[in-house]
Amino acid sequence: MAPQNPLLGTWRVESFERWTADGTLTQPLGMPPAGYAVFDDTGHAFVQLGRATTTDLSPKDIAQSLMAYFGPYAIDGDELTVTVEASNMAAYIGSHQVRRFARDGDALTLGVEGQYRAKLRRVTA
Question: What is the CATH number for 83?
Fold first, then answer.
């Protein structure tokens, strides 16, 4: 029997934090941010994060905050790798995006230490 997939389902982003070069922690997508990460049972990931439309930003600014990518994913211990098929971020296309993750019930934290951290909550399994 294969081990249960700890990421399977739809996860809503609750916070997105990024560290600046000098080590300052920022919230570039505002609070609360908007978006979801979906990990399906066929082994595909779909990630879309951005600023919430309730902010005082223009529609153009909100659209420019969007980070989206998708592709097949693999899990190895506490490490997630998404092989990016397409993205609105040119540098991601064809890359392997590797993230450490920790899950506590319906709460998920993933990111790259010293770069960024996203906290999400399970919507569906």
Answer: 2.40.128.280
